[in-house]
Amino acid sequence: MKILYLEDDVALSATIEEFLTDQGYDVVTAFSGNDVLEYSYDEVFDLFIFDV
User: How many separate domains does the chain show?
Assistant: First the structure.
């Protein structure tokens, strides 16, 4: 499963990305809405997780 994770806190994003990767997920982390748009044009994701 491929996950796109949006988080603006670098330390928190590293922790969450490591956890999800250890669980066997393929994770791409974005740090802004513009990053999300760029990644979603280039790749297909099964799940989006946004920090609101």
Answer: 1
CA 24 – CA 42 distance, rounded (Å): 22
Q: What CATH code is carried by the domain that includes residue 37? A: 3.40.50.2300
- Token representation of residue 36: 């999300």
Q: How many CB atoms lie within 10 A of CB 31?
A: 15
Which run of H or E residues covers position 11? helix 10-22
Which residues form the domain of 35?
2-50
pLDDT in tens, 1-52: 999 999 999 999 999 999 999 999 999 999 999 999 999 998 999 999 998 7
Quick check: 16 and 7 in contact, CB under 8 A? yes
